[in-house]
Amino acid sequence: MRYIVFLFIAAFLISCSTESTSPFFEVDSDGSLKLSSPDGDNTITFLLDDGIPYYAVDRGEMAIITNSRLGFELQDMEDLKDGFVIESYNFNQHDETWEQVWGEKQLIRDHHNEMRIHLKEEFGLERDLFIVFRAFDDGIGFRYEFPDQPNLQEFNIVDEFTEFTLTADHKAWWIGAYQWNRYEYLTRTSYVSEIDTVITPLTMRTDEGLYLSFHEAALVDYSTMTLERTDGLTLYSNIQPWHDGVRVRAKTPFVTPWRTLQIAENPGDLITSYLILNLNEPNKIEDTSWIEPAKYVGIWWEMHLDKSTWGSGERHGATTENAKRYIDFAAEHGIPHVLVEGWNIGWDGEWYADGVVFDFTEPYPDFDLHGVAQYALDKGVRLMGHHETSASVEHYESQMHEAYQLYEDLGVRAVKTGYVGHGQEIFWTDEDGNRNYEWHHGQHMVRHHQKVVELAAQHKILLNVHEGVKDTGLRRTWPNLMTREVARGQEYNAWGWGEEGVWDGNGNPPNHVLLLPFTRNLSGPFDYTPGIVDLLFEEYRPEHRVNHTLAKELALYVVIYSPLHMAADLPQNYKERLDAFQFIKDVPTDWYDTKVLHASVGEYVTIVRKDRNSNDWYLGSITDEEAREFSILLDFLDEGVSYTAQIYRDSDDADWVSNPYGFVVEEVDVKAGDEFLIKLAPGGGMAVRFMAVE
Predict the structure, then answer these.
(1) pTM for this entry
(2) Which residues of 247-277 are buried (b: 16+ CB within 10 A; e: fewer)?
(3) Which residue from 448, 425, 450 is spatially nearest to 438, judged by alpha carbons?
(4) How is residue 138 annotated by DSSP?
(5) Are 65 and 237 in contact, with CB atoms under 8 Å apart?
(6) Residue 480 sits in the same domain as residue 519
(7) What is the per-residue pLDDT for 422?
(8) Range 397-416 average pLDDT
């Protein structure tokens, strides 16, 4: 039974009109305002220079962000960028521990200091603008607030002047923005001086060994932020535009997303930073009893292997007979959901070219939707719904109320949505009949996804969003927003290509999943779809393969967090590898705690997580092309508890190229404080269940 604990430690408010005696807030002689984190390590400085707002960030004695500009360019009215005076300011301290409905950690501490600055134009329209800064021990966040006021009501933002001016040319891990395939690219590595415009999270390492990650939190009714390198080492907030060049359409009162910078002494601390979640609003769903993390199987991988097709015909995958086979398999092995893609009218022909072809309530003749849904319920599992929109959002919105009601009536509890389409293929039709094309990640799509998540919540449906908007922590506010893709996932191993200058082979390189935890996954859960046990595809696509060992595929269930995790391979392949499948069946998708034992970006990582509903711990350790060996202390295990370590590891002769199936399953008794050996083959991994002995 799930238990609930709330710990409200403290919340202090100190109003400041001139100066404060707090050690975390001070006013310098030059009029600048300084805010420090609770541990005193991170400091934000705000100042006005000739009426222009600037901020800076320091870590101890080290300057991280030097004076960087703030403000906005507005359409057809005076900009909000200069001529300001500080009308007032206040300082707040906050310390609270809150519980996630589900997540990688059950109880999260939100401990920060806040500086709220009221700016007012000294002349002209005398408009008001608030800037709110929060300093955490693991980084900083800030956002703009536009209060309701006579001289600023409806307005359009055509540029946001937010800058992040770096103090050195750091090593960076990045993916370029505004590309045709959205965010589905391999991560590149270079110095900041070599990048142009990139997506976030953007991760860096300083020469001093400090790790930085730039992102945003609480993205609601705004456009997503990319970072454009402008002069030297200045990163500029390049927010994605509407078709007419406007970046954001707004009406006061209005707030922007938080601009965030996570700061860590080692890369593992980025993974266990919850700053993004802490900057989001609390849960808005009163009854969350229906929101349950789970695993799923489905009619999906066989289409990527070209064993069957999404479209109708002789090889149609979504038939009643085939769906029932998957349901029988799921019921036998205790897997709660069965995904079926290609069930509805619209998949024939070039569906991805337009998208105004899908019917979200009408199945193909060879798929009995009502019968399959009931068959699943009778077997103790549920059908997982699927809505591919082909980026035709207007068409989808015209049907989605009826479609979600249908799914609720059928007992469907989770839906996978898709928005396949090139970078700027979202369109809508205006009152004159003109088709206007929008970016996948502009304000138009942010608004759309918010409509979908709120509608899904009304129908008690969980969401798994593919090709959508990047995660910014909204899962705290809307916990039915379970997981997303928004990255290059497992399917690229079935048919994908390399990228010049990054990887010259097919599929994803061995280090791809070693980069994700420190880049894409910092934004939130990722539906990577791990668990492939037939690694070489010899029957279907022999020119492609998974570039891992078998043990590494299992370790991904711990390393890559998702509350909805797919057992992605074909049922017949799991039946032939029940030894490996046992770990997939056992591993939870909801955790009490998460720790990173050691990590190096793109090279190796070892993560342990404690099950929320038992005393069991799970370990996932993976490496790139290099073999590695680590000795760790099991000091994360509970004292006084005996454990059986069920180990799924690479064999001594395993190798991702020459022997990817080299695999050993063994057991050993352990306890807290024992020394434990992790030995990883080239391209390999290890998965362990530390099962508490009652």
Answers:
(1) 0.95
(2) bbbbebebbbbbbbbbbbeebbebbebbbbb
(3) 425
(4) T
(5) no
(6) no
(7) 77
(8) 98
Tell me what pLDDT residue 621 has: 99
Mean of all residue pLDDT scores within the chain? 95
Last residue of a domain, one of 447, 470, 486: 486
The pair of three-digit structure tokens given for residue 172, joined into one six-digit string = 């960076």
Q: Single out the residue of 483, 469, 477 nearest to residue 339, CA to CA.
A: 483
Tell me: do 382 and 511 sit in the same domain.
Answer: no
- pLDDT at position 572 over 70: yes
Reported confidence tier of residue 21, pLDDT bands at 50, 70, 90:
low
Given a contact cutoff of 8 angstroms between Cβ atoms, the answer to whether 65 and 55 are in contact is yes
Q: What domain count does the chain have? A: 3
Q: What is the dihedral of CA 274, 418, 238, 212, to 10 degrees?
A: 30
Catalytic residue chosen out of the listed positions 160, 302, 438, 491: 491
Cα atoms in the Cβ-side hemisphere of radius 13 Å centred on 547: 26
Q: Return d(Cα 533, Cα 522) in angstroms, integer.
A: 27
- Please, what sign has the CA dihedral across residues 190, 193, 199, 205? positive
Is 491 assigned a catalytic role?
A: yes
Alpha-carbon distance 566 to 324, whole Å? Answer: 18
Helices 320-333 & 369-378, crossing angle to 10 degrees?
Answer: 20
In a domain, 1, yes or no: no
CB 588 within 8 A of CB 594: no
Q: Which of 90, 125, 94 is nearest to 12 (CA)?
A: 94
Do residues 656 and 684 make contact, with C-beta atoms less than 8 angstroms apart?
A: yes
